[in-house]
Amino acid sequence: MIPITEQSSLYDQLENKSVEELTRYINQEDTKVAKVIEGVLPSVNNLINAIVSKLKADGRMFYIGAGSGGRLSVLDVIELPTTYGIPKGIFNAILAGGIDRLADALEEKEDDVNEGWNALLNVEINPNDIVVGISASGTTPFVLEALKKCRELNITTGCIVSNPSTPISAQSDYPVEVLTGPEFITGSTRMKCGTAQKMLFDMISTTVMTKLGRIEGNNMVNVKLINDKIVDRGVKMLMQKAEIENYDEAKSILLAHGTVKGAMEELVKKHN
């Protein structure tokens, strides 16, 4: 049986289509992704709850993947310390070929059966942590062998795959199977599978960070003040929360304490 991710596209003779037809058909396929994710939200929620539980107990979270999905997981992870003010090393990504080779697209590395587990050993993976495999096919050796080793050592595992009943799902305590169907270009899982992965990474990290108290109301109160845009956003946030009318005063307080949350905590102390 042909895996869903390798099944023939619903469209053909693409080279004869107009630009208008191609974009319309691609958009038609993309609109299916959110609906598919809606159908697997219970599985996503189970995975998120497991991640939150591990992180609250001082464990760590690791994505492990190759290809487009692995690279997307890296992009999600590297933004979290700035956006949510978390220390580096809490949310992590292991990429086939290494994160330092992100732009090289070393697709051949996905067949390496030892590299994934060796990378986890290098960060001293242990049962306090959780490892989530990323593989559209659900068969990527780099991911599969690492998850097998994790389970042998009672390390909690999860996965995001795009085919049903895969070997990687079988090695996952918290599998998420997002069946987005055949790709617009046959086998090109950077398309709908990649879109689903990106949406899930956003959903997982945002929800986890919220449940860890990194968000208040709907604001990034722990965001790192790394550029003028973020400083300006933080100043306005502080002005609203602390009812400060003077921009420069709020900016001075914010910069003195590093985050909106830190500034608010200090202001509360002063008023008590």
UniProtKB/TrEMBL annotation:
One of its GO terms (biological process) is amino sugar catabolic process. Keywords: Carbohydrate metabolism, Lyase. One of its GO terms (molecular function) is carbohydrate derivative binding. The keyword DNA damage does not apply. It comes from the Bacteria. The keyword Secreted does not apply. This is N-acetylmuramic acid 6-phosphate etherase. Gene3D superfamilies: Glucose-6-phosphate isomerase like protein, domain 1. Residues 51-214 form the SIS domain.
